[in-house]
Amino acid sequence: MAEESGEKSHDATPHRRQQAREQGQVAYSQDLGSAALLLVGVLVLSYYGYGVIDHVMLFMERQLSTGGGSLVTDDRELIVISDSVLKTFGVGMLPILGVMTVAGALSTVLQIGLLFVPDKIQPDLSRLSPLAGLKRIFSLQGVVKLGFGMIKILIVCAVAATVIQGRWNELVYASELDLPDLARLLIDVIFATALWVGATLFALALLDYGFQKWKFEQDLMMTHQEIREEMKNMQGDPQIIARRRQIQRQMALNRIGDKVPKADVVVTNPTELAIAIQYDPETMAAPVVVAKGAGVIAQRIRKLALENNIPVVERKPLAQLLYKEVDVNRPIPDQSYGAVAEVLAYVYQLKGKKMPALRTA
């Protein structure tokens, strides 16, 4: 009933997955990239940022003071000093920004791999429609996304409040600290809060990616009719394929009809396989497999053998070996000489003839 109603009950085929990827349809979570970028940025800043801040503060202290210890008051000199401070700060931040850029790129590549879709670069004017935007906002997916966003905000606020609560006593007595110590305390609290918030967002983003992956797989699932249409497009019409196979089978049967009557013996398995063997010591160096087949063709070979008074001998291991290892119109291999000679000797004995000696192929 599911197949008749068109329900998507089959996993996506590799061809369907490839088509979806070429169209830019992949499992991707924007939250995972943002959370990874935030978490890596906080970790790098907590490890490397203090050195940058101390370096900039020391540089500012030196630049803003004259040799006698008085502050610089000239506007032009202040502009020059500020420019130097910004350059120093910028150079110090380059490694941090570089690591964050690499982390952002990796978060995308690890999710979807290397993918370039030119169609996605082109502007889509339909997305500028206010009506389409309202439909996206008030759709089921939009409502779910909004709800998840609200829950995420509440969780982040709870985590931040918990971290600050743990450092509350330090913050209460912060007014008694000197300005440098106060600044360092505030920076510690900010980094600790940002680190826990980043870790929380990353965990929530992993859940979001899992949901996006599940939804992507559900959207890719196919109906029975879609699978049939795909097979038809890739391999051709099943009726044409069946007709082609029927013609090939008929041609094989016609060839068998010419070859089997000339054989000396037919070796069977006993019903699944049939191999027709011919041996003419004057023209052949070794016995030759003139016809072989399984199923319907094997039945045809046995029928022709009986109609032409050709002995049918049951030898299961020999039939399996010849069917698997020897092509039609090819001599039998050396390792099968003994078994084939035994069969031929039995056949010649039935006919009252002397068995000719087998020569090496």
Automatic annotation (TrEMBL):
Gene Ontology process terms (BP): bacterial-type flagellum assembly; protein secretion
Membrane-spanning segments: 26-50, 93-117, 138-165, 185-207
InterPro entries the UniProt entry points to: FlhB, T3SS_substrate_exporter, T3SS_substrate_exporter_C
Region (Disordered): 1-24
Pfam families named among the record's database cross-references: Bac_export_2
One GO CC term on file: plasma membrane
Compartments it resides in: Cell membrane
Keywords in alphabetical order: Bacterial flagellum biogenesis, Bacterial flagellum protein export, Cell membrane, Cell projection, Cilium, Flagellum, Membrane, Protein transport, Transmembrane, Transmembrane helix, Transport
SUPFAM superfamilies attached to this UniProt entry: EscU C-terminal domain-like (SSF160544)
Membrane topology reported for the UniProt record: Multi-pass membrane protein
Compositionally skewed regions (Basic and acidic residues) per UniProt: 1-14
Gene3D superfamilies documented for this protein: 6.10.250.2080, secretion proteins EscU (3.40.1690.10)
General function of this protein: Required for formation of the rod structure in the basal body of the flagellar apparatus. Together with FliI and FliH, may constitute the export apparatus of flagellin.
PANTHER family hit by this protein: FLAGELLAR BIOSYNTHETIC PROTEIN FLHB
Family note: Belongs to the type III secretion exporter family.
Protein name: Flagellar biosynthetic protein FlhB
Organism field: Lacipirellula limnantheis
